[in-house]
Amino acid sequence: MAQRPHADLVIERTHATGDLSALTSSWRRSAVKHGLDPAAHTRADRLDGAALARRRQRLDGFLHVAAPQLDALYRLVCPTGCSVLLTDACGIVLDRRVAEGDAAAFDDWDLAPGADWSESAQGTNGIGTCLAEGRQVIIHRDEHFLSRNTAMSCLDAPIHGPDGQMIAALDVSSARADQTGPMNALIGAMVGQTARQIEAAYFRAAFVGARFVVAGDSGEALVAVDRDDLAIGATRDARRALGLPRQGALKPRPLADLIGRDDEMRGLDRAERAALMRALSRADGNVSAAARALGVGRATLYRKMARLGLLARAGDGPCLSDETVGPANRPGAN
Q1: What are the CA-CA distances from residue 34 to residues 122, 137, 282 (Å)?
Q2: I want to staple 216 with a disulfide (CB 3.0 to 4.6 A). Which of 18, 112, 150, 241 is the partner?
Q3: Total domain count, the chain
C-alpha cells in the first residue's frame, strides 16, 4: 500500500490531456503502448549466461574499446556509491563496474549483467528512456514509472556507432537517498562526455589507417579521411556540425568540399600542391630531400612551388631549410 501514492500519481498524469512534458510522454508509453502497471512488483528479466555471452560476442570489439573509458568513469563516481553499466541498443546490460561491497544491493535492484532495462520491460527509467528517445536523460527517483524503482537515480547517455546508429547506452545509477539535483547534473555531464569519448574511440578503431580531422567544437567531432583525401566517415558530432545525414554510411567525398574550405585551386593543382606540401613536411622543409623523394630535380620542384604559391612560405619559418638560400639551390641550378 505504501507504493500506491506514486502509482496513483503516474496513472493520473498519464490521463492528463494537457500535460505534454517529456516525462509524462514516457509514462504514457509505458502504460499505454507497453501495458505496464506502475504498482507491479515484476523483477527485470535476465538472460542466462549463454544468452548473455552471445550478446556480448556480437559487440566484442565495441566492449573492448569501451572498457578503459568505463574504468575511468567508475573511478570518478565510485566514491559516491554509484555503479556504471553499459547496455546494448535493446537495453540489455552487458558490462558493469561496481564496488564489491555494493554488488549485492545493485543485484537486488536488477542492475546487473543480463538484465533487461528497456522501456518496454521496466517503463520509464534511465537506460530504457535514453534508448527510446535517443538522448541523454536523468531519471531521478520518483520519475521512474514503476514504484519499485523510485529509490534509484539513473543518469544515461546514448552511444552511436561509426554509421550514426545508436548501439548502446551508458548508465550511472545510484540508490542513495541523499542524491541531489546538482550532484546528478555533475555526474550526468561526466556520463555524456564519457559516451562521446567511447564513440570517438570506437570510430577510430573502425577506420584503421585513416587520418582524422576535427570538424567541430569538440574533439569528438571527427571525420575519417583516406589516402586520397576523401572523407569516408564521420562521428555523430561531426555529422551534426557538418549537416550530414545522421545515420548510414558516408558517401566518399573530397574533404575540402565537405568542410567548405575556400580554395582558388581546383582539380589536379590542388592535389599537386597537397603532394608537394606532404613531401616538404616529411623532409622538414629541405627542398633537395623533398625533390629526391618526388623523383624530380630541384629546379623543377622550385618551378612547381612558385606556380602553386609555396615559395611565399619561405619567410614563414621552418617550411624551407637554410639549404634553399644558397646559389646552388636557386631555380636554374639544375
Answers
A1: 9, 20, 61
A2: 241
A3: 3
Instruction: Write the DSSP assignment of 131-164 as a string of letters.
Output: HHHTS-EEEEGGGSSSGGGTT-EEEEEEEE-TTS
The strand order across the sheet containing 153-160 reads 93-97, 83-88, 166-174, 153-160, 137-140
| One-letter amino acid for residue 308 of the chain | L
Q: What are phi and psi of 123, to 5 degrees?
A: 70, -165
* 214/152 Cα distance (integer angstroms): 38
Question: Do 166 and 83 share a structural domain?
Answer: yes
The per-residue pLDDT for range 55-73, each reduced to its tens digit, is 999 999 999 999 999 999 9
At residue 102, φ and ψ (nearest 5 deg) are -100, -10
Give the domain extent around 219: 207-259
Residues 36 and 97 in one domain: yes
Answer yes or no: is 62 within a domain: no
pLDDT in tens, 87-138: 999 999 999 999 999 999 999 999 999 999 999 999 999 999 999 999 999 9
